[in-house]
């Protein structure tokens, strides 16, 4: 939960940009693209922001916060100035506030330092003085002009300077003045509820004055003429604590109950801006939202007095394009992109877009009838009911279906079933799921159970890499080496795990049958064990309407993919239904991401970089258009794998229509090289805790690969499980695998159908037919091709 200081919020606006200072955080929001652009967790030195101001040119943001030595006569204020575009700190300092003598209700200097306006307590007469230069600074000159205010002041910030003069707000009366006349340009009686209910703000160029009064209306005035420009109702929003307005008078920003709310004055629509730590969400009054990938911790679905995780409601309400249309923002291209992503997710869920509005009507229900914890197990009674008839049920623990992606069958319209579930270490989020005969899923009730840690986890790595194919035209240089290198690097994680198991199939050993049979290797993993599966080589989508994705095995015939290649479902099934709840699937093949029909394959300047594509297609080289930022940045809840299949985090080397590359310079696939660097170097460990989480892995690899290929290859998370606690210790001891300054040749050489001696091979490592296995001394020989071990590298696969 946020600290109490986080309820001190100051806001500012410039154009379509909104800025929020909360506690010690400062963040910037783009209301045109509906996203948070940046956040500074060290933005303020104290948790009490007092003011936030954007420079007239819109380049900098200055945030003021009170210091501990504040006194009634001298306000000491710390200031920090940030670059609006990047959030970089460009200046900081401390200044005394406006000096106020005893007996003065207000004293405000003009921004140009030429004038000061003041008024005594309980007086209606304000005095304008010229500030005169002195040896030790500036001092007050004689009174130039006096002004008779409508009411005596009763609160701070009675005066606000504009480029046309100043504005006074006293006891519900708003007046506009110039320094050349003691008569007001305009006077508006706002109300009589008292000054504490009135909020006044200026646009950065000071041409617009905005006010709210008793939280019911928002009014805009022209600062030069005092003419009222617009009045909008805020009755549905609540009491306003702070207010900001942009130069173009399109957007206003208010703070209500600690939450910033952006109001589009042209469309008469509003959205709330939620954030906590590194996650954010933008939500309208109907619950339609866009959010960061991890914003499930900020939002919840509510039915009556019961709360549910946001995942299911997101299928209907996580619609950025709809939100953009309501607010009149975003480009046509961006809205079309989000529309396509939204429709694609509905299609994968089997939901008709026309029926999405009533998708939660007449749905089945599932409840916890009872739940009794017994140390690291919990006994659960489930009450299931479906008017259309029951079809299946499941139990998810931290996002992983205990009974596999298909669940358990059940019949009838009402049933009570009992299941005993093993808990993992620390916190376990247990969700119940039920589906009826019409394919509709009920809302998932959730409970949490905590279990004590018992010993270290184990690590399993299962790899498939193909460089040599039966069809010589398919040959690659480094796919085999990718899997062997990662297996070797992960052996250096032995200090953090009770045991490290590795099995790698390469070249002729990679067949559809062997891939399916390899499930026995990971089937022994426990609930807390980490399982990593990797494939490297050619990948291709079938040319038929279904566009099924295949991993090209050693003997694949491009004309008979269904019979000779391995469909993606076969590979993902390796981790479906196993006990492990920490599963990561790495795919270094072409077109490995989920296919987006709006994308087309293009080779930019790959040949100039010495990049070789891992594809069977003949593709003419073209010049790709400049990348669209909203396409490259997929840290959005819309792209989360909320439709859970196996609960595995699937990290693909490229998007569905992109190529994946390998290069002689790296002697690896570009994606695999980035993964190795993330696990072995310091850069990816963003919080410095010595562990690389899946979030840190994704952030590092996605940027590194896109930079290296100049945007031609963009890794993506196709299935995510934000509840999975997957982390690998930093593998500093494996840095030599990445650097290779002393290893110009690949670390391993595969000689098919020929026996090659491996000097002093440890008993825990068996070699056979392109398969290298470590950690299970009792496994049988897999035959035919043997891996030759490079003597100076043999220690990398030795279990310690």
Structure description:
The chain is mostly beta strands and 800 residues long. The protein has 3 domains: 104-269, YVTN repeat-like/Quinoprotein amine dehydrogenase (Methylamine Dehydrogenase, Chain H); 365-451, Sandwich (Immunoglobulin-like), CATH 2.60.40; 458-774, Rossmann fold, CATH 3.40.50. Helix content is 12%, strand content 38%. It has 12 helices and 54 strands. The strands form 14 sheets. The protein has an 8-stranded mixed β-sheet, with helices on one face. α2 (320-327) runs antiparallel to α3. The two termini are 42 Å apart.
Give a short synopsis of this structure:
This protein is mostly beta strands. It has 3 domains: 104-269, Methylamine Dehydrogenase, Chain H (7 Propeller); 365-451, Immunoglobulin-like (Sandwich), CATH 2.60.40.10; 458-774, Rossmann fold (3-Layer(aba) Sandwich), CATH 3.40.50.1460.
Give average pLDDT, whole number.
81
**Poorly predicted runs:** 1-6, 70-74, 593-608, 618-627, 741-800
Label the structural class. Answer: mainly beta
The neighbouring-strand order within the major sheet is 49-45-43-39-37-38-53-52
Return Rg in Å: 32 Å
Shape: elongated
CATH architecture of the largest domain: 3-Layer(aba) Sandwich
The main pleated sheet reads as: 8 strands, mixed
Count of distinct strands: 54
CATH class of the largest domain: Alpha Beta
> What is the fold-level CATH name, i.e. the topology of the largest domain?
Rossmann fold
Number of domains in the coordinates?
Answer: 3
Kindly estimate the percentage of residues that lie in beta strands according to DSSP. 35-45%
Q: Assign a percent range to the helix content.
A: 10-25%
Tally the helices: 12
